Amino acid sequence: MIIAFIVVVAIIYIMQLFSLQVIKQDYKASADNNAFLYQTIHPARGTIYDRNGELLVFNQPAYDLMVVFKETQPFDTTEFCRILKIDPDYFKKRQQDIKNRGLNPGYSSYTPQVFLTQLGFEEYGLFQENSYKFPGFYTQRRTIREYKRPNAAHILGYIAEVDKKDIAEDDYYVRGDYIGKSGIENFHEKYLRGEKGIEILLRDSKGRIKGKYNNGDNDRESVPGKNLKLSIDIELQAYGEELMQNKLGSIIMIEPSTGEILCMVSSPTYDPAILVGREFGNGYISLANNPYKPLFNRALTGTYPPGSTFKTTQGLIFLEEGIIQPSTIYSCWGKSAKPNCHDAAGRTFTLVPAVATSCNAFFSKGLISMLENRKKYKSFQEAMNKWRDHMVGQGFGYKLGIDLPGESRGMIPNSEYYDKNYNSRWNAYTVISIAIGQGEVTATPLQIGNLAASIANRGFFYTPHVVKEIADTPLDTLYTEKRGTSIAPEHYIPIVEGMRAAVLGGTCRGANIPDVVVCGKTGTAQNKGKDHSIFMGFAPMEEPKVSIYVYVENGGFGATYAVPISRLMIQKYLKREIPAADKDLENRMKNAVILRNVP
Questions:
Q1: In the predicted structure, residue 216 carries a pLDDT above the cut 50
Q2: Same domain, 198 and 272
Q3: pLDDT band (50, 70, 90) for residue 23
Q4: What is the pLDDT of residues 411-453, one digit of tens each?
Q5: Which three-class secondary structure state does DSSP give residue 372?
Q6: Mean pLDDT to the nearest integer, 493-516
């Protein structure tokens, strides 16, 4: 029995020793952390340029204050707080938060933890002079973003400290790391962030650094992030933001032959430098509390009634489905002539002048003819779904897939929607307002800007995108392959002619630029308050170089604000300057104030 007892005790001891020395890593980690200091080498984030090679975003050196709690000793916290310009209460709270495993699941008293991020040069210098007074604390170099211009904030986006969700989704990140939260910084995070390196330093029994472990052979260099060249023309972007100051709305300009976005203005906007450094929190709160919502990207996330710009899509559908021919005549009188036209009651139109004058009745009657056509469609539902399929084919109802986060899909109703909302008791007159871009239909400025590009191309488009080049990496084929619409190219001819006629003598004569053949279509979207001012167009008519969409909330008729702003933007891009004859117009647009009252 004694022998058996000794054997059992020996086995227990052996198992425990095996567990401590082989299976469990706690004591090994403790020993290693006593002997080694592992310092993360943060990579430089990729820089960002505009399409002409102008530097937009780069890096500046910054420093994080790190702490290894196992190495700390009693010190003068008052002096510590004075040097780093922090409140003593914040010092205590920060210690508690780091040690809270609920907030910081990777916490260990033996491993470096981020105590403060992005020290300014003054705090860094003072701390370095006095670091011997604060054992266990040391600084670690990293970089922060710097901006050359106060423009394109919604495109560029911002970076911020990772949260628990970020860490859980990607083991690349640890507490204290930074990640792109919006814009390009977010969408292309994995290209921009690079790869971390590591430096292993050897310490003596008192924790003093004695040099690199193994002469640095076990160190790993960081790999900088990839540089990006945007499709954005920053001069054009800045000019658009200036024209849209003190207004709510957006401007989208696209190069039709590539789908590259030349500018994407969302107004109001903000200086991206506000969301950098130790003052990030205060800056973000200020922007978030602004009643005009400058953080909201209206160009991608905003959904609006497209108004009369939508009539071009209706004409294309009616032609494709054989409902009308370019010579088909509809009149502006009778029961089906509603919604009424603004100034054409009693007149008759074919397709080209209907586009040019923005005749409500023509497109309303076209939709009725399609939905009530029982020779071609068995029911309202079948006709309605065919209409919706063509709308989806032209880039509506779903996200286009731009290389930015936050895109909305808009709303294109189908028969199931109307069956549900009208108990299957609906007809062509129930939905007639969708023919003129009102009612249930909504679209993003990006989608209408893409419509202008697809009309310019006579039936195809490239997915709109803001990144032109990624260093040493090809673009995703989503942005380089043509996407055809469901409409045959020949049906675009009368629509383009109508848009040209609108500029020469129709609803958007203000967009008629000498020596530039502009095609356009105005819109005036009804609203609870003052109507929204809209223009969609492209130039030149043949071999188009630019398409444009301007949406000014509460701006009234399309010709009041959207058309003159478009005129100026097209000239700025194609001519690089505004002619003397349009300087008064430029000043008037820059100085106009259209901000609805916000409670």
A1: yes
A2: no
A3: low
A4: 999 999 999 999 888 999 999 999 999 999 999 999 999 999 9
A5: coil
A6: 95
Q: Which two tokens stand for residue 318?
A: 């009616």
Asked if pLDDT for residue 230 goes beyond 60, the answer is yes
> Token pair of 85, please?
């310009």
Q: What torsion do the CA atoms of 508, 509, 515, 521 make, to the nearest 10 degrees?
A: 20
Q: What is the pLDDT of residues 116-147, one digit of tens each?
A: 888 878 888 899 999 889 988 988 888 889 99
Give the pLDDT confidence score for residue 38 in this predicted structure. 79
243 contact partners, CB below 8 Å, separation of at least 6: 251, 565, 568, 569, 586, 589, 590
Contact 534, 558 (CB under 8 A): yes
What is the domain count for the chain? 2
Structural domain of residue 279, as residue ranges?
Answer: 234-591
Q: Look up the CATH number of the domain holding residue 67.
A: 3.90.1310.10
Last residue of a domain, one of 178, 197, 230: 230
Nearest to 542 by CA among 458, 484, 463: 458
Q: Do 313 and 444 share a structural domain?
A: yes
Reading the block at residue 376, the tokens are 């071609």
Does position 337 have pLDDT exceeding 50, yes or no?
no
Token pair belonging to 573: 């891009």
Residue 219 and residue 241 share a domain: no
State how far the Cα of 328 lies from the Cα of 362, in Å rounded to an integer: 10
For residues 292 and 431, give the distance between their C-alpha atoms in angstroms, rounded to a whole number: 33
In a domain, 344, yes or no: yes
**Would you say residue 459 lies in a domain?**
yes
Q: Which of 215, 230, 245 is the last residue of a domain?
A: 230
CA distance 438 to 338: 13
Residue entry with tokens 């039709």: 256
Question: Which residues make beta-bridge pairs with 465?
Answer: 260
Instruction: State both tokens at 295.
Output: 């953080």
**Are residues 209 and 251 located together in one domain of the fold?**
no
For 249-276, how does the pLDDT look when each residue is reduced to its tens digit (9 = 90+)?
A: 999 999 999 999 999 999 999 999 999 9
Angle at 306 between CA 302 and CA 312, to 5 degrees: 140
Q: Do 83 and 194 share a domain, yes or no?
A: yes
Give the predicted TM-score (pTM) of the model: 0.87
Residue count of the chain, please give it.
Answer: 599
